[in-house]
Automatic annotation (TrEMBL):
Record Pfam families: GntR (PF00392), UTRA (PF07702)
GO BP of this protein: negative regulation of DNA-templated transcription
Molecular functions per Gene Ontology: DNA binding; DNA-binding transcription factor activity
Gene source species: Halopseudomonas xinjiangensis
Domain HTH gntR-type residues, every copy: 14-82
Record-given protein name: Transcriptional regulator, GntR family
Alphabetical list of PANTHER family matching this protein: MANNOSYL-D-GLYCERATE TRANSPORT/METABOLISM SYSTEM REPRESSOR MNGR-RELATED, MANNOSYL-D-GLYCERATE TRANSPORT_METABOLISM SYSTEM REPRESSOR MNGR-RELATED
CDD domains according to UniProt: WHTH_GntR
Length: 247
């Protein structure tokens, strides 16, 4: 019915709501349901799967939590635009994190230059008064869709060698493998802000559309700050995921 996979309860040891959730997830990810397409109603799924409304709602709740569907009051449940997820339990570049999930991640260099840093950048990198930094501006693409405007700042001794390098991928592997700089840890801050004109144009956003802005300060293994970044993501395409434990 309406493209729903039907199955006989009891054929799998998994709970029924998990089987239904996995069936719907598979169809969404395979494209059987298009972005913003309305899913079958709860009543239709109850008949197709032969289960209770509670079971259907359990399955849909999990899909909501995964960001795969959203509900419109009185209208039903619809397919969301899938978001790429970066888990920040590990220090990874965008490309490293996305490749592990099967995405194609690339970058387009907009500019690389030496410049006077803004106060926030100078303070983060502990540069001396009046000292220049190297600024690298790029657009990051996920499956060939622009999802992030990236502005990265490096001390001169680290940034200058980047002028002669291919910057279409992650910079972290360049720092580690080519320059011999072992990475240690990063401090991350998140906020939501309105996209400026440049970000709107490069990411194809509407006027006044919000973005997820990430500030990331990366240190080498000895604790020196070596890379300060502003990462401006499309809010409909990307999310950061954390795990926190109560000690």
């Amino acid at each position: 019915m309406n493209g729903i996979d039907q199955f006989a309860p009891g054929q799998s040891p998994l709970p029924l709501y998990v089987q239904i959730r996995d069936s719907l997830r598979r169809k969404i990810l395979e494209g059987s349901y298009a972005i913003h397409e309305r899913l079958p109603s709860e009543n239709e799924m109850m008949v197709a799967f032969g289960v209770s409304r509670i079971t259907i709602r359990q399955a849909l709740r999990d899909l909501h939590n995964e960001g795969l569907v959203f509900s419109a009051q009185g209208k039903g449940t619809y397919v969301s635009k899938p978001k790429a997820v970066q888990n920040v339990q590990r220090l990874q570049g965008f490309g490293e994190a996305m490749a592990a999930q099967g995405y194609e991640a690339t970058a387009r260099l907009l500019s690389i230059r030496e410049c006077k840093p803004a106060k926030a950048v100078a303070a983060a990198l502990h540069t001396h008064s009046g000292e220049d930094v190297v600024e690298v501006k790029r657009v990051r693409y996920l499956n060939r869709e622009a999802v992030c405007l990236e502005s990265s700042y490096f001390p001169l001794d680290i940034g200058r060698p980047l002028f002669s390098r291919d910057l279409s991928g992650d910079i972290f592997p360049l720092l580690e493998n080519l320059f011999g700089i072992p990475l240690g840890h990063a401090e991350i801050g998140l906020d939501a802000t309105l996209a400026d004109d440049e970000t709107q144009d490069l990411l194809g956003l509407k006027v006044g559309e919000a973005i997820l802005r990430v500030e990331r300060l990366t240190h080498n293994r000895s604790g020196r700050p070596i890379d300060f970044e502003y990462l401006c993501y499309r809010g409909d395409s990307f999310k950061y995921q954390f795990r926190v434990d109560r000690k």
